[in-house]
Amino acid sequence: MTAGISDNRLTANADHFENRHIGPNAGETREMLAAIGVPSMETLISKTVPASIRLDRPLAIPDGIGEQAALSELRSRLYGVTRTRALIGQGYHGTLVPPVILRNLLENPGWYTSYTPYQPEISQGRL
Hints:
Blueprint: H1 8-11, H2 17-20, H3 26-35, H4 41-48, H5 67-78, H6 99-106, H7 120-123
C-alpha cells in the first residue's frame, strides 16, 4: 500500500518548523562524525567549544508552536497597539542637496552591488 496524501504521518504537526526541516538523519550524522574521527556529537562539542562558555544545564526553551498558533499569539499581542504618525526624517524634506553630491551618491556602485568596480557587469558602462 502506498502512502496517500491523507496519511496522518505526513500531515501531523506539519506547520511546526522542526517537522518540516530536512536535516541529517542518525545514519548521516554517524557518517559525518566518522569522517572527522569523532565517536559522538558530545565528544565533538567538548573538543570544539571551550568549557568556560559551555552551559552544563538544558536550555529553558518552551515547546514549539505551529504557524497558526504563532500568528494568533502575535495578533493577541498587537491588539490595542495604535498606529501613530512616523516622525522619521522630519525637518529634512526641504533640504537642498547639490547635484554633484546626489550624482555621486546615486551612481556609487557600493549602494547597489557587492561587486568591486572592476567587475564587468558594472564597469563596462564606465570604461
